[in-house]
Amino acid sequence: MSADYPTMTTAEIRSAYLNFFKEKGCKLYPSSSLVPDDPSLLLANAGMNQFKEYYQGKKTMKEIGACSCQKCVRTNDIDIIGADGRHASFFEMLGNFAFGGVTKEQACAWAYELITEVFKLPKERLHFTVFTDDDETHDVWRDLGVAEDHITRLGEDDNFWAAGPTGPCGPCSEIYFDLGEEVGCGREGCAPGCDCDRFLEFWNLVFTQFDRQEDGSMPELPHRNLDTGMGLERMAAIMQHKSSFFDGDVMQSLIKLGEEISGATYVDDDYSGASRSLRIIADHARSVNFLISDGVLPGNEGRGYVLRRLLRRAVFHGRLLGIEDAFLGRFIDAVNDVMGEAYPNLIENAALVKGIVSAEEERFSNTLNNGRVYLDEQLAALAAGEQLPGKAAFMLHDTFGFPIDLTVEIAEGAGHAVDIEGFDAEMAEQKARARAAAKGDAWGSFNDVWTELSDELPATEFMGYDHESVEGARVLAIVVDGARVKTAEGGVDVQVVLDRTPFYAEMGGQKGDRGLIDSDSGQVLVRDTVSKGGLYVHEGTLSGTLSEGDTVFAGYDLERRALVRRNHTATHLLDAALKEVLGDHVNQAGSLVAHDYLRFDFTHFEALSSDQIKAVERLVNREILAAKPVVTRVMGIEEAKASGAVALFGEKYGDVVRVVSVGEEDRPFSRELCGGTHAANTAELGLFKIISESSTGSNIRRIEAATSAGAIEWLENRAALAEQAAGALKCRIDEVPARIASLQADVREVNQKLKAALTGASSDAISSAIEGALDADGYKLVLAQLSGLEGSELRNVWDTIRQKVSGPVACVVATVTEKGTPALLAAATDDAVSAGFKAGDVIKEISAHVGGRGGGKPTMAQAGGKDASGIPAALDAARALLGL
Ligand code: SER
User: How far, in Å, are 255, 373, 428, 723 from residue 393 at the CA level?
Assistant: First the structure.
């Protein structure tokens, strides 16, 4: 077919779509993070994810609807990626959404207007599908001018859309573009829904009107909703007169890079071999980049596993293309070049993403070779058509880090299936770690008491930034053993929700407060405060009686909070100091702020040297000694970012945020977005001391540290240990190092003397062996069994024998080492060798007696073994061998 419509770039399509819907009154929402707020959803997989509460009627939108360009990751079809022109793990979804404010007629009319008037797609190439008996939508399209033979009815598989097994769902209508007869199957009746490539679905309009329940029933939602999703890459292919997801401008720029690095050639209609690998790398590199910059780190479960799997598959396909060196970093740059403008957080996190990618790539390259050898061996041992056992697949996963689909792919290449059931059973046995990852339900069911409570009760008002206690707070709910109760009585563990509280609930790493809730009739000794869906939950033991509606006093433990505050400020100083000493790739990856210590995890790829640790410590202490004010200001998120405040990697923030700065307003040492509580001045921290530095897994280092009372206590303990050491050495503390050095020198000397006594001329055992030397034909033979010597020290024994015996001499000596294992040595002077003694042969012959094996040259040979009780038999065997 000829080019009968205009051409547009991906960027032009994106903005044309969003502008169109903005002009129609829809509010533009930025893409949500790939890491959803919904704990039941692994990764954002559709534009509608972030609007869940609007569909369910829990929130209402002022505007008539919304639009967005959402980054999405779907890996359920991972094995098809690259083998056709439609599937990918990462894609952008252009969507418009409405929650009662837009009728079906209106939604379809907008869609029709956009594609025919803005994108100017020829009407004769547009096809529409509707759900089997959805006459209403059929008529809407017809009335808009679509010919009857361009409307197809399809069943549940194609034209009913649900985010998950339960939750909002509804019939849908898809829009297809006819790529032309020449790309199709040519069969009569080929139409949308056919499995050939002729009709490319590019827009799905879901009329979300039902709320599917666990029992399968589908009550209507509070209003009729709209959820549409247009695949941006598919649309780019169409608008660039191509037929595949991978042939639009963005994907092509990545595929070109793959061609350049590998020397392979991409053929757009070849869906196997090198072309497939080039597509896979281009696709997976985008997922990897977007996932890491949204805060996902490679791991063995959940999102971390999805990421690791994609990253490793990309590396593996690089190998298939003959790329030996690390290459993914170049793809990260290339993705940023074409997508960084639309997604600035890619650029912000580029250094970090590249660091993680290259560390992970290196790690995997090392295991790839070993794993490949193992897998090839396993495959070679299989009969034709036999399955690779689940155990082997699990071994590859567990020991070599091969994602299962990589194993499947290689095994299939060699003509073998994989026993997936067996693999799953092995995985299940190794605890339930992958279980969380397997749940793909976009809605999930939050059935515990806290789901209902957080829905019913207003969010707790937190008073604790500037109140130490609150009088007259009201008890809104009491939970005992997971169930809500109206009244609780003495001695039980309770969870209490108040309308307002000064207690800080554990968040952002800062531990929850302890303290006291007190009413006329009862008291709760609060052990911990946690946050559940906006509610602050006080956990503790009740004495007396407490009822819903009671008025209480609530006050936290001041001393403990003061210590926590200092440690929290210290984590900010530490973060800033680490960035200064190590570089900008340092990002907070987790933290714990307790009263007695703090823990700070951050991205960095190797252990810190002691000089680096010292430099970090000094920087933090410099800020403490400078007694700088710690100032918290509340501002809009954009203002906060503009002021240079550090946002936590992968963290989501509301529109209004707290910004904590340490030091001068115009040039702060540290400025972070933070909801925690802090010291008023760095001087309160007193002293900062790093207690340990370690690794917590790939690419993450962990520092534990203490301030003020905790640091002093740590130093006191250290000082006590030093006193103890000095006491034991009977010297002053400052003399300890020298004292230890001199003791070590003494020990070395004594050891040498001891060894000399055992192996040298003064050794009784050796002297008597020499005295008892046997006369062989042309040389003397010394046989001896010694003990307490190591195998290596038998050479010294031989040196002694050689010195003390003049003329041709040979020996066979044995020892039982300190570990209790036997060691044998045979040796001979050159003239003893000429006379017929071959040390190597002797050892070979006799070592079996000690359960060992050995050999060597005619002049010197050694053996180890397992069974020291065989030494006398070995010496006898030597004698017999030499005819003595
Ligand atoms: N949620 C639908 C889809 O993912 C339409 O946006 O296809």
Answer: 31, 13, 13, 56
Q: Please give the Cα distance from 32 to 43 (Å, whole number).
A: 10
**Arch. (CATH architecture) of 449-556:** Beta Barrel (2.40)
For atom 6 of ligand 1, which residue has the closest CA? 229
Rounded distance between C-alpha atoms, residue 203 and residue 611, angstroms: 58
Spell out the domain ranges in the chain: 10-246, 249-364, 382-437, 449-556, 561-716, 761-881
pLDDT in tens, 100-116: 989 999 999 999 999 99
C-alpha of residue 45 to centroid of ligand 1, in Å: 9
Residues in contact with ligand 1 (CB, 6 Å cut-off): 46-48, 95, 161, 204, 206, 227-229
| Cα 310 to ligand 1 centroid, rounded to whole Å | 23
Closest atom of ligand 1 to CA, residue 46 = 4
Which residue's C-alpha comes closest to atom 3 of ligand 1?
229
Architecture of domain 761-881: Roll (3.10)
**How does the average pLDDT of the chain come out, rounded?**
90
The arithmetic mean of pLDDT across residues 431-439, rounded, is 42
Q: How far is the CA of 206 from the centre of ligand 1 (A)?
A: 7
What class does CATH assign to 561-716? alpha beta
For residue 228, report the distance from its CA to the centre of ligand 1, in Å: 6
The pLDDT tens digits for 237-251 are 999 999 999 999 999
Distance 685 CA to ligand 1 centre (A): 52
Q: What is the CATH number of domain 10-246?
A: 3.30.930.10
